[in-house]
Amino acid sequence: MDLRLEKLKRRDLRHVLPIEATVFPEPWTVAVFNSELALRHGRLYRAAWDGDQLAGYIGFLILDEEAHITTIATAPRYQRTGVGSTLIIDGIRALLTSGVKHLSLEVAVSNERAIALYYRYGFAPVGVRKNYYERINEDALILWADLPESV
Ligand SMILES: CC(C)(COP(=O)(O)OP(=O)(O)OC[C@H]1O[C@@H](n2cnc3c(N)ncnc32)[C@H](O)[C@@H]1OP(=O)(O)O)[C@@H](O)C(=O)NCCC(=O)NCCS
To answer: Is residue 15 part of a domain?
Structure first.
């Protein structure tokens, strides 16, 4: 599959929201996406397109040498085809050019497929946030990765 990686734009949200509602127990609202995408600094949002189909998207919050994955999702029909990996690698490449050296994220302790994806890219657990996902009453694992110099 030939994916096209692009900046995620507000006009893409009509493709994002149905995926978001399907894959997350606590989906972001359009207002949250709009406020994130409106920020001119400190954020990186990228989309993976298969033709006119949105296959997945990822977001990062950037603070000097540290970045945090705010969201990552692959549309159900594209899952397990390498979209999540492509988004992570593309994102890390962009972050490296901005001088980012470390990456962190939270993931629900039961989200085995996401944890497997993150472990594959060098993330390791550094802590737990109790009841981070209040609606589903679940703890989050805090994962951390020191980025390589190039990917
Ligand atoms: C987590 C998620 C983004 C992974 O995206 P993806 O495009 O399916 O990931 P990839 O195809 O690149 O998979 C890469 C690796 O991750 C692991 N992985 C991904 N899905 C998996 C699954 N269902 N079961 C076990 N391992 C899995 C595997 O190691 C996989 O490599 P392999 O296929 O060669 O074995 C996707 O499952 C998703 O959108 N989930 C719902 C949203 C979510 O939970 N986001 C994370 C919030 S912290």
So the answer is: yes
